[in-house]
Design a protein that fits this description.
The protein is mostly helical. The chain is built from 18 helices and no strands.
């Protein structure tokens, strides 16, 4: 049955949404993390294959950025319309998002195949690592449409109070991926190409599951007549989704800047280390990302229903829970750095420099909780202007310039790893304090 977010304890509603979402996102993360684990252990004495796959991360992130723009940009609007009782508008928003996702996937697939080689070398590939990067990417790109539909439409399931169904969407594909990966990589001897093929097949199954549910009578439906572009709705979705796009898109450019700079100052070894750091970060970011994603429908619904005090309660819970979690995660990382590295690679050359890098990179991780609490509030309540600005501030205005500048000031590869905690501190606090002084204080009005 559909959940009513305007009744019951706010923190319980958030957790009832967030826990299935965390599990779903954990399983979704396995799509890429399992690939990296298997690839990292293909040759225990050489991390070049892992480095090559790491070079594709900016491209994969860029694809997800468009899924966030067209899909997640519509979810807050959908929740507000649903909370206000306008079911027709909610369904038209969902259909418009689907149309944008399909068109975007077609364009990105064509561009990716046409410019694959120059893009990979621009991202820091060497002749050795390019072979692995190209083998993975040329197959992964064929699954762009499935990746975008899965990422972009699954939020509409959770926004209606069906988080367990949203979790099943990801479980089905991820379990299939974990089964197919070792078969394709080792048994059939397909290596990196096998990992990409397993991911594409798994994402296709997840996308089919989503479409089956959203076209059934169990929820607000994705109707064929609504899968079309409406100029006004497209503008609203893209305006609000721009903050998600900027967050993911700037992450793409950050990864590109890191890889190219590390290639210059440290070579393939440090690009491989950054691949491991990105993987560890993805794992530890997952719970707080699930928490704020679970809170957004609750905030948006109550905002649309005219219950500002419940929105305030959600913001307070997000902040406290996020801060407790990020401090705990940081302690686990700095106390057991080698453990996290060995999950992804057995290359002995990576261990000593990798341990130093992981401690620098995650210093100040707690400030990410403030970034997420502020950012998710702006998005949930439709404040696109602030959401976009603070997405740009942390990544584009702080991280990228520091990543390019600090190594040239004599810090070498350490400068790349230090840029992240500086941006977390400055950007996270600025985002949260602005949210408290603007949206939070004005809710009663």
């Amino acid at each position: 049955m559909k959940r009513d977010f305007s009744e019951g304890k706010v923190w319980k509603l958030i957790l009832s949404q967030a826990i299935p979402l965390m599990l779903a996102q954990l399983i979704q993360l396995l799509y890429n993390v399992v690939d990296r684990i298997y690839i990292g252990h293909m040759d225990t004495e050489d991390s070049t294959a892992l480095t090559g796959v790491g070079l594709t991360f900016p491209i994969v992130t860029f694809i997800i950025a468009f899924a966030a723009l067209f899909g997640m940009g519509g979810v807050p609007l959908f929740s507000i319309a649903d909370g206000a009782g306008d079911k027709d508008r909610a369904e038209r928003i969902m259909g418009n998002s689907c149309a944008l996702l399909l068109i975007g996937a077609a364009v990105l697939t064509a561009v990716g195949h046409g410019l694959c080689r120059p893009i990979l070398f621009l991202l820091g590939a060497s002749e050795d690592s390019y072979v692995y990067a190209f083998s993975y990417l040329k197959i992964y790109l064929f699954g762009t449409v499935f990746s975008m539909l899965t990422t972009g439409l699954n939020g509409y399931i959770s926004a209606q109070g069906f988080p367990r169904t949203g979790m099943l969407t990801i479980i089905i594909g991820a379990v299939l991926n974990m089964i197919l990966d070792p078969v394709f990589i080792f048994v059939l001897g397909l290596g990196v190409s096998g990992a990409a093929a397993a991911t594409v097949i798994s994402q296709a199954v997840s996308a089919l599951w989503i479409m089956r549910f959203l076209t059934s009578k169990a929820a607000l439906r994705l109707r064929a007549g609504n899968i079309r572009l409406d100029k006004k709705l497209t503008g609203e979705i893209c305006r609000l989704g721009t903050s998600n796009f900027v967050m993911q898109g700037t992450a793409c450019f950050v990864q590109a800047a890191c890889n190219s700079t590390l290639q210059t100052y440290g070579g393939d070894l440090y690009v491989g280390i950054m691949t491991v750091l990105n993987s560890v970060r993805d794992v530890f970011m997952l719970p707080i990302s699930g928490l704020v994603s679970g809170a957004q429908p609750v905030m948006g619904h109550n905002y649309g229903a005219g219950k500002p005090q419940r929105v305030r309660e959600a913001i307070r819970f997000n902040t406290l829970a996020g801060a407790v979690y990020t401090v705990s995660a940081w302690l686990l990382i700095v106390i057991f750095p080698t453990f996290w590295f060995r999950i992804f690679s057995d290359d002995p050359a990576m261990m000593a420099p990798g341990e130093e890098a992981i401690k620098l990179y995650f210093f100040g991780f707690v400030f990410m909780s403030f970034q997420f609490a502020g950012q998710s509030t702006f998005q949930a309540l439709g404040d696109a202007k602030h959401a976009i600005f603070f997405s740009l501030l942390r990544k584009a205005i702080i991280v990228i310039p520091l990543t390019l500048l600090l190594p040239r000031l004599g810090m070498g590869v350490k400068g790349v790893f230090i840029a992240e905690p500086v941006s977390n501190c400055v950007g996270g606090l600025a985002c949260y304090l602005t949210m408290r002084r603007t949206v939070y204080k004005k809710l009663d009005r």
